[in-house]
Amino acid sequence: MTATMTDAPPPAAPKADTAGKRSGRSLGQILMIIAGALLLVAAVRVITGANQLDSSGQVSAALGLAVPIGLAGLAGLWSERAGVVNIGLEGMMILGTFGAGWIGWQTNPWLGLLGGIAFGVLGGLLHAVATVTFGVDHIVSGVAVNLLALGATQYLAKVFFSKGDAAAKGGNPKQSPPSESLGDITVPGLSDALESLQNHHWFLISDLAGILGGLVTNVSVVTLLAVVLFVASWWLLWRTPFGLRLRSCGENPVAAESLGVNVYRYKYAAVAVSGGLAGLGGAFLSLVTSHIYLEGQTGGRGYIGLAAMIFGNWRPGGLAMGAGLFGYSDALQLRNGGVTVHALLLLLVVLLVVLAGWKLYRKALWQGVVSAVMAALVLVWYLVTDEVPSDFVGATPYVVTLLVLSLSAQRLRMPKADGMRYRKGQGK
């Protein structure tokens, strides 16, 4: 019996995800959803008078806050599509902030950007050695990377920033001297024209102008690079033989090995790319957001990026939506406070009513009733108050993230071999 089990053939390759393809939305449906969302936001803006809901400043701030989260989520996507859970994204971002701040102030911000990526790659390779080569539990390794990155950067900051030329230029044990700016891009003429349209506060037209204005005004070069990386990642992972082999390592590494795929090599490549992307997200915080390395700068964005990746169902498009949602809600509470967040309650009421109707239509009675009750409670809150308390305003992005994750959890499908230990030749 033992011989029979030992000589058993490797499990069959996973079937194509035809169900996922059938459930995918067409371009026309996506455009209709976007148009409906825009109409809803425009209506809420007119009813509440909260003109900052979709102003160019709000959109621009949301974009800047979404980029590091999106890059962290994209890093997690690369790693987990190859079957390696990467809880260490936060530590790799911390390494990226330090590498960018350390190299950036001594040379120039472009070399600092490369330094942040390189430091992130080092963190990724450390995680790969532990999980792929030595078979350490992925969660344990990720937590260790986070702790090591935090301790190492704190020590190195004290060594390099608290004395000598660095101290004379503004450095101290918790931050680096400032580096130069990478520069922003504004489309001349178009930006002013869109701002003028926005200031008229016309229904839908001004809303569209505000959104487009935020996308063409003071846009960082790194933000454009992040957009290119999202598109390139989708193309590489879903449209090339390389991506097919890499994803097969996360679905069924034994079957992939039987077809001649070097599973170790692809896992190492994916986790190294993951570390580099997380390091780039950290470099964005050091060079674009604040122009210095600062202890505690990441603020848990690595974990939020991981949540955005899960919300996006391990796909770049959904991940971008999740990062944008968190960036928008974060920018809303930072820029406008309780009055504008209060207007967001009305938007939440409409969404919950739509969700309740959809659940009841799909015969999900319990979920539909819960959504309807939540909509009624939020509506009462909106009607009896004029402003959201400041304590709740600060928690807005986290509440929005938890709400969206809870509503989307039933449709998630992670790679089948994600987080599993793999040993070369185990299928023979």
Order of secondary-structure elements: HHHHHHHHEHHEHHHHHHHHHH
Any idea what the shape is?
Answer: globular
Number of strands: 2
Compute the average pLDDT: 86
Strand order of the largest sheet: 1-2
Low-pLDDT segments, ≥5 res: 1-23
Computed Rg: 23 Å
* End-to-end distance: 16 Å
* Beta-strand proportion: under 5%
Category by helix and strand content: mainly alpha
**What proportion of the residues is helical, as a percent range?**
over 70%
What is the secondary structure topology, with strand pairs?
Elements: H1 2-6, H2 18-23, H3 27-48, H4 56-81, H5 89-106, H6 109-133, H7 138-161, H8 164-168, E1 184-185, H9 190-199, H10 205-216, E2 219-220, H11 221-239, H12 241-251, H13 253-258, H14 263-289, H15 301-311, H16 316-335, H17 337-361, H18 365-384, H19 390-394, H20 396-408
Helix pairs in contact: 3-17, 4-10, 4-11, 4-14, 4-15, 4-16, 5-6, 5-7, 5-14, 5-15, 6-7, 6-14, 9-10, 11-12, 15-16, 15-20, 16-17, 16-20, 17-18
